[in-house]
User: Which sequence fits this backbone?
């Protein structure tokens, strides 16, 4: 298991756009960018030891409260994509992450997704305080106020 006392704030995945992710205009469908943001978030949690099994052992898990996406440029079939997620803060029952989605060939920013997550108990689906281990791991990195939304 990775060292949870000093986890990385960021995680990056690389992948290729698949044809079934396209809309009628030949661009990646807007909803796919949000799915990519969730995927890189889940992969990050697993990589740093705070994944699904760890969460279930503590009787809870993360659910999305809100996603806010800003689209800059379209991606098309075959583009090589890089998605990077960063933990922006954890406090109370919430956690915030920001994901940047770029085209690898030229580094162009395609989309930015701001996500607010809530920790909920698996027993009843009600919000609960984020486990102390997560707060301890990321608390030193968070801002005093709620992280800002997608920057315009």
Assistant:
């Amino acid at each position: 298991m990775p060292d949870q006392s000093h986890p990385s704030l960021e995680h990056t995945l690389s992948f290729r756009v698949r044809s079934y992710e396209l809309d009628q205009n030949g661009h990646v469908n807007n909803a796919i960018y949000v799915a990519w943001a969730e995927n890189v978030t889940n992969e990050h949690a697993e990589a740093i030891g705070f994944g699904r099994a760890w969460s279930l052992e503590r009787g809870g898990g993360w659910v999305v409260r809100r996603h806010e996406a800003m689209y800059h440029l379209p991606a098309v079939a075959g583009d090589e994509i890089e998605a990077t997620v960063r933990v922006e803060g954890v406090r109370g029952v919430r956690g915030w992450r920001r994901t940047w989605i770029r085209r690898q060939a030229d580094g162009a920013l395609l989309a930015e997704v701001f996500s607010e997550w809530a920790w909920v108990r698996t027993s009843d689906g009600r919000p609960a305080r984020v486990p102390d281990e997560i707060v301890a791991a990321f608390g030193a990195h968070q801002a005093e106020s709620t992280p800002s939304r997608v920057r315009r």
In short: Helices lie at 30-47, 52-57, 132-138. The chain has one domain: 10-141. The domain at 10-141 is CATH 3.10.129.10 (Thiol Ester Dehydrase; Chain A). The CA atoms of residues 90 and 138 lie 7 Å apart.
